[in-house]
Amino acid sequence: MLGQILLIVGSLMFFILFFGLLLVARAHHKVKQGIAIVRTGVGGGKAAYNSGIFIIPVFHSFEEMDISMKYIDVACLGEEGIFTKDGFKANVKARFQISVKHDFESIIETAQMLGCEQASDQATLDKLFKAIFQNALTVCTEQFDFLAIDNDKTALQEAIANHLAKTDINWVGFELHQSTIEEFKQISLAELEKSENIRDIRAYRRVRKSLMNRDKLSSKVFRN
After folding, report:
1. pTM for the whole thing?
2. Per CATH, the architecture of 70-223 is what?
3. Is 30 exposed, middle or buried (0-12, 13-18, 19+ CB in 10 A)?
């Protein structure tokens, strides 16, 4: 009789332990690389990345957030070209690399202010950051002479990073990793000549004068 009771108790404990371990295994969600899991429910908001998190049905709900690198492309071309410190006008293209900060507070902040799905939506990110980055690109480009940027874009890229670091921006949990000047070209004389904008007219005259001085120098070198 006692043996039967012990057998029943042992079997019962085995099944309890087995189903307990099964429940734990099913409740534990492993997080993929570049993804964060945001959990809500009992215990308040929690986030996990590069690890795992326990999610118990009924007590918790969760969403996945893409926290990998995102890109904001800015193009200031033609009429929207940017003037340099010495009055030349350039077509400028830049790419800004951003992501949600890889810390729990920032992930929760992004989830609360944007939502997990919107945090990886390109249209949403462009709406949030594109105008900010375009303004930084314009302000900083105007601090350098044309040839200084044309010869070395590093100083401009550093100036943009410093400008954004000092500017009061609601990053909604994101951070800037890098800005890259992908194109920097002088706007053609033909484009400037058609414009009635006074700054474009001055830029046109500067380019003409620069070309004339270069031709004179080339002619002098040839004669010598």
Report:
1. 0.78
2. 2-Layer Sandwich (3.30)
3. exposed
